[in-house]
Design goal:
This protein is an alpha+beta fold. It contains two helices and nine strands; from the N terminus they run H-E-E-E-E-H-E-E-E-E-E.
């Protein structure tokens, strides 16, 4: 059972998947970490509940695609849920975008409800990372 925060997910990835993993220099970056060996620029998310689809914001997706295009990197979206760790290669999926009313932020004090453009990525499109 995985009920991790992003720091724990980063540590696990560094130990078992990406031995060269480094954190983004800017904490407010649109990506969380990077593997120079694999050229993976990675956004991390930790979910406290398991769902058959995982939410991705279009703003985050667009920023990742733009940034990785500048550096010829591969944009990766890695999520942990209580049932596992799921890795999406964002170049290999074709998100279907919808508008959804959601909290402005999940970690900070701003609980205002705003409209966001999001996609729900099926776990069938992910690689499940194993211990």
């Amino acid at each position: 059972m995985y009920n991790w925060d992003e720091e724990q997910l980063f540590d696990w990835l560094k130990e078992f998947v990406y031995f060269d993993l480094v954190k983004a220099k800017n904490q407010m970056s649109r990506w969380d970490c990077y593997s120079p060996k694999f050229k993976h620029r990675i956004e991390l998310k930790c979910r406290s509940k398991h769902f058959p689809t995982l939410l991705l914001e279009k703003k985050k997706y667009n920023a990742m695609i733009f940034e990785t295009g500048k550096h010829l990197d591969i944009p990766m979206y890695i999520n942990s849920t209580p049932e596992g760790i799921y890795s999406f290669d964002l170049l290999e999926i074709d998100p279907i975008w919808v508008e959804k009313k959601l909290r402005a932020t999940t970690k900070f004090a701003n609980n205002n409800i705003i409209t966001k453009e999001v996609a729900f990525l099926s776990l069938d499109e992910a690689i499940k990372l194993e211990l």
